[in-house]
Amino acid sequence: MILVVLGNAALILIMWARHGQFPHLTNPASVMIALGQLSALLGTYSALVQVVLMSRSPWVDGLFEIDRIAGWHRWLGFATVNLIVAHVILTTAGYALADGRSIAAQTSVFLTSYPFMLMAYVGAALFVLIAVVSVRAARRRLSHESWHLVHFLVYLAIALSFAHQLAAGTDFVHDSLALGYWVSLYAVATALVVAFRIVAPARMAARHRLRVDAIVEEASDVISIYIKGRALAELPVRAGQFFKFRFLAGGLWWQVHPFSLSAAPNGEYLRITVKEVGDFTRSLHRLRPGTRVVLEGPFGVFTAVRRRRPRALLIAGGIGVTPLRALIEEMPQRKNSITLLYRASSWEDVVFKAELDQLVAARGGVVHYIVGRRGHEVGIHPLAPRFLIAAAPDLRERDVFICGPREMVDTVMSSLRALKVPAGQVHVERFAFLT
Ligand SMILES: Cc1cc2nc3c(=O)[nH]c(=O)nc-3n(C[C@H](O)[C@H](O)[C@H](O)COP(=O)(O)OP(=O)(O)OC[C@H]3O[C@@H](n4cnc5c(N)ncnc54)[C@H](O)[C@@H]3O)c2cc1C
Fold it and tell me: Which atom of ligand 1 is nearest to the CA of 146?
């Protein structure tokens, strides 16, 4: 997969060079124009790679941890916007310099004399908007839904810039081979999105006819939703994975949110356990049995398939216990095979206590509940290296599965690095924003 991505980037560089850029690099204007073209090609390619990364294709999601995909997505996202902004600036400045015009006059020439240019400018502006809301500080203030909606604008931005590339892009106007290659990159990205974000969920809905069966209160702000349907045993899902859920009820049907299974798949029902943090999760309390459910997924490689060692240390933060609770069911019933550290702000926030105690005891393991508000632990973080090693002295010989909010996961990861736990034994799920 990585080789395919890098191979195509190399092809694009060759295509750019083949179109005779080097002999023209004799003055500042032509250097700017050539670099403007290159940044357009690479920026658009990077946007298409992101569409593929987020297409929910099993060829991507089955290979990499969601965390890693999200990291690449973030990095490539900012690279895309920088390259597209560079394209606009370099191309405008290059032509303005070559033709002796002001930047404003050159922009006006582009808009009035070149086809589809207004659409392209709107596309570039949308990319900048998406980058602005993706900056971490801005993102924290957004609801999941607003974040999701803004991200959908990426498809619009990519579509808006497509026509001007074909009509005005010097790489494509006179080279039908390059044109065919470029269009095929768009076609592959579009096909993956349609297949895995639209067709697959529709087929799954028709096949399994999922409905809410029951809602059970686990804590004052946490509920479990039991979902039943046809042929559930055929769903190719494993403990530790998550789906994106759409509940077909008034006011909810247009939203889709990710939730991990909180019980291992058993062919009879799916269970998710949801903590109230905002509008959507609050309104799930009002769901009625019988409500139709549409799923996208399953996603993620946070599963027992990743295990390398016979024993495991599981570390949960708050509601991040859900996939770990499911995973424990798939762990072997062997003495001392599991240690679970469960971090929660208060005892009211601890869910599944009875289930966890019983499942872990059945595997000869131990659960450590670390309860208390963040910052109340006089100077020492309860997930600092010395506490982890005290809880599991054979830590380096264990797989470590971590799930929780971003900050907690970051703390645990730095403790594990300090303890020199091999990276291949560390498996992470962050309950972080996904597109
Ligand atoms: C892979 C994955 C699995 C998940 N599994 C579970 C689960 O099993 N149980 C569960 O209760 N939750 C789970 N979540 C989190 C859940 O998806 C969000 O809490 C939910 O979408 C919030 O929707 P809302 O409209 O109620 O809240 P919003 O109004 O969207 O958000 C309320 C507040 O929480 C913040 N917030 C919301 N969602 C996120 C997020 N994903 N990342 C960072 N900050 C966020 C917002 O910035 C806002 O401040 C999971 C998330 C991911 C990515």
Answer: 30
**Domain count for the chain:** 3
- For the chain, residues with pLDDT lower than 70 are 20-24, 137, 374-380, 432-435
**Domain match, 35 and 173 both:** yes
- 347: domain CATH number is 3.40.50.80
Atom of ligand 1 nearest to the CA of 259: 5
Pairing of strands 211-219, 222-228: antiparallel
Distance of alpha carbon 166 from alpha carbon 177, whole angstroms:
13
**Distance from Cα 404 to the centre of ligand 1, integer Å:** 11
Assigned domain for 270 exists: yes
Per residue in 247-269, pLDDT tens?
Answer: 999 889 988 899 999 999 999 99
Helix H or strand E encompassing 313:
strand 311-317
* 255 and 176 both lie in a single domain: no
Query: What predicted TM-score, i.e. pTM, was given to this entire model?
Result: 0.81
What's the CA-to-centroid distance between 345 and ligand 1, angstroms? 17
Q: How far does the centroid of ligand 1 lie from the alpha carbon of residue 165, in Å?
A: 38
* Domain endpoint, select from 262, 284, 299: 299
Residue range(s) defining the domain that contains residue 420 = 306-430
How far is it, in rounded angstroms, from Cα 242 to Cα 162? 34
d(CA 99, CA 35): 17
If one residue of 284, 431, 435 were mutated to test the ligand 1 pocket, choosing by the most ligand atoms within 8 A of its CB, it would be 431
Domain boundary at 273, 299, 325, which? 299
pLDDT tens, residue by residue, 359-406: 999 999 999 999 987 655 555 688 999 999 999 999 999 999 999 988
Residue 365, class by beta-carbon neighbours within 10 Å (0-12 exposed, 13-18 middle, 19+ buried)? buried
315's tokens: 């570390």
C-alpha dihedral sign at 185, 189, 190, 194: positive
String of DSSP letters for 279-291: HHHHHGGG--TT-
CA-nearest residue for atom 5, ligand 1, is: 259
Same domain, 249 and 150: no
The alpha carbon of 84 and the centre of ligand 1 are apart by a number of angstroms equal to 31
The answer on 150 and 108 residing in a single domain is yes
41 and 121 in a common domain: yes
Ligand 1 centroid from CA 206, angstroms: 27
**Pocket mutation for ligand 1, best pick of 244, 277, 301, 325 (most atoms within 8 Å of C-beta):** 277
How much is the pLDDT for 137? 66
Q: Which atom of ligand 1 is nearest to the CA of 275?
A: 11
Q: Is there a domain that residue 95 lies in?
A: yes
